[in-house]
Amino acid sequence: METTMESVCAEDRGVLKQILSTLHDRIGPQKFNAWFKHGTNVSMEDGCVKVAVPNPFTANWIEQHYQGDLAESAKVHAKQNVRVVVTIDPGLSGKCSKRDLDIQAEIVSRATQGRARQRMPIKSPALKHTLDEFVVGECNQLAYQAATASVNGTQNFSQLFIHGPCGVGKTHLLQGICNILAKKNNKSGAPLRWRYVTGEQFTNEFIVAVRNKKGNEFRDRYRNLDLLAIDDVHFLAAKRATQAEFLHTFNAIESAGRQILLASDTHPRLVGELNEQLVSRFLSGMVAKIDAPDKETRLAILKRKAEKINITLSPDVLDYIAVHIRTSVRELEGTLVKLSALAGLENGKVTLEMARDALADHLARTDSAVTLGDIEAVVAAFFGITPADIHSSRRTRTVSSARMIAMLLARRHTRMSYPEIGRFMGKNHSSAVLAVQRLEKVLADKDELIWNTPVGTKSMPAEEILKLLEEQIV
Q1: Cα separation, 118 vs 397, whole angstroms
Q2: DSSP state of 90
Q3: Which strands make up the sheet holding 286-289, listed edge to edge?
Q4: Per the confidence metrics, is the pTM higher than 0.70?
Q5: Ranges of the chain with pLDDT below 50
């Protein structure tokens, strides 16, 4: 007799009930109720146990502390090895009671007691980059001048936001500024209190402080600084609680007339799901972009790096590398390290032919043109959605606007036809044509686009959105 879908589902539910009962006995009622009873949805599908939780912290905690117990419980009742998958569903956040949250905090506090007691020092460790080593070119001149002005006091750059693609020198400038200012004293004559952290580090410290009920210590650590530098600030996107805390930190430092340095892969307005109040504060200071290095700058970087690692390269080899490796400073440096290793095998001599063979894989990656995937990634990040949303059948204001802009950018920056664009995005030829025509009319009328985000409704002139996105794509 064939097994019906209903009987399969009933069987899975029965097995799942037994699994949860065993898990309850293994970890105890307090932990089970705190982490699995409310705000967590456990299901079984195709022999896989799926655990949906409301936030990343809960997901990490369950993966680290209870995933093994859950897998063992499942193995007993499912009579086979069962995969346990933990996913995040923000819609579950409202189902977790205050009592459960208090119990979770108590469990975390007991488990981390002794590991989180050491306070972070106010002063950051020495950083490796200095402004003296920064190679200045047309692509980064504005950002470099802003950096030097901020340390010399020739301009009132108490806020500096540097943005650009990966590997072009943003971290170098931030660390260079910190290294110079760290040697100075504050207005009272005491050593400067400063910190250099990444967006991820700031977020992790905040989460630990909240869970351990050490919020006041966290605030004292950051809000009394003379200089705060945060690299990869785009990591705060979609993290509402962390953004709210950083907004208060930003206000405290700014109102005291102290300095804030920020770096991001994108312009403040292109950081998806970012609090509008933070965006306005980022834009109130100096915003400087760093582009990918031009050929002259690449040559200067190669010469300086080659001298530093003690490798001698002929002008034709240097020129060949500068012409073909165009994406980032890191890849230029990686290229020289590879050639340096080859030079050790070839008695210190690197020929042009050797360089061509050694860099074949680099050239294959750096010679690629703009693709629809590139366009979708930039557009999705701006609107705070995923590329999968653009491909979906959803017609919300946000998704429709993103899809429309992606189609127009595809026409401008790729050689794909309307039918090809439509097929790529899960639409037909006429849908692509109508979307482009609709956006062109909006541009002609100089109208704004309005869309919804988790932090509220946003609007911006369509022409300005396209300009920002095209800067990122090109």
Answers
A1: 48
A2: G
A3: 194-198, 227-231, 259-264, 159-163, 286-289
A4: no
A5: 1-8, 113-123, 366-368
